[in-house]
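Hi U.,

Before I forget, here's the chain from the pilot set. I'm dumping it here mostly so it's searchable later in email.
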Amino acid sequence: MPLNVTVYFDVASTAPLHPVARQALTAALDEGWADPARLYRSGRQARMLLDAARETVAEVLGARADEISFTASGTQAVQLGMLGALAGNRRRGGHLVHSAVEHSSVLHVADRHEVAGGSVSVVPVDRTGRVSADGFAGLLRADTALAVLQSANHEVGTVQPVEEVAALCREARVPLLVDAAQSVGRVDVPAGWSLLTASAHKWGGPPGVGVLAVRKGVRYASPLPADEREGGRVPGYVNVPAIVAAAASLRAVRAEAERENARLHALVERIRARVPQLVPEVEVVGDPVRRLPHIVTFSCLYVDGEVLLTELDRAGFAVSSGSSCTSSTLTPSHVLVAMGVLTEGNVRVSLPYGTAEADVERFLTVLPELVAGVRAPLGLDLPAPKTAIVGTPPRAEGRAGAESDEQKAADEGGVAEAKSVGAGSESPEASGRVTVIDALGKRCPLPVIELAKRIGEVPEGGTVAVLSDDEAARLDIPAWCEMRGQEYAGEAPAADFGGDRGSAYLVVRRTT
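Structure:
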């Protein structure tokens, strides 16, 4: 395959426009361009197309047509849905509950709600990214106005127990908003929701179309000034051609879903099994069983996600990552943080309908070479690839090597100065001496890389203190220990080991 031809493996971000959507959009631009609120012929024609699209979407979602409103995006649907439900239930109280791995649109509304005087409870997840239904219900209160739970996670593909949570919310008389952006069109919509949101460009519709469904009987008050369109929930003129294309493509992908899901599930299983066999120090994140059929996320220890994604792009593969280094911010992925896994160096592969088996095989062929090339400058003695045990939950998910500029700094001696200092007599590090790695001022994964380089110099039972002022180290170093069979002994002030800021992360060597 020529290098200028890209194999697109990032459908979880946005799906290519479905051929049916393209055809429907072209036709609707000719037939549905007029104002659907007008009574003349072209207006009535546009209204008929809009009504038909609404019926199609309602049927797929298991809703009534008058419960469906179209928005300008999935994010806007989430925002309007949350704000409207909170406003409609304000007499009940101002308490909001959501999981720790929701889309950022949920988190931003929650932040605004808290600033305005409301209260927010966050439901934790396990290492696979899944909430406990009982744990979720345990945070519901008499003043809870709204609960929010995604149908499946956008970064790791883990499917949430929506129906169980919905039943418990119903018992507590709390409305549940389900963000179904990643699952609508691919799998059945879970039952029991009070409000539901979706996004057309995730299933192959055109961008700029979101869906907000509000069940009859759910208290909802528009957070925006009144407007007669879209049931009063979404103000402004609707994009009829785009909505028609979105509905047509939704019908088409649902018709393809059963066949394609089985095929993609098998391809993802192949990736899940073979990547750890082909590449040393790799683990897969997310629930191995309760997951979407087309998403797999894995992490390569000591490999920076941005560097690897760039190399894969050069090799003709478009993939994505939840790594902090690829998100134009120094803040780690909140999903990976909530799961307690390494926060950098991960790769998300999400397969579109029609993915060829040959493309997956080629990906598996080029990946080991690219990872080895990124790791080569680090000078690490890595073990041989291990045999993956398919279907077992992941332990700690690997993360990341150095970016090119950071590696250059390391080569020039500017990364981490390691030295041995005496430990206090009452220190829990029983060896009597502690090897201190000063990585202050350096962003992860560099502290982890320096730890990997130095751990071999420490006698078994000896302790390493990694000094770091990067918050990512709080997760990355314990996860590295679990992955490499070392013991994480906790955190202490960096000042106890000669640092002027940050924390000391203590590691006891347990393996040779």
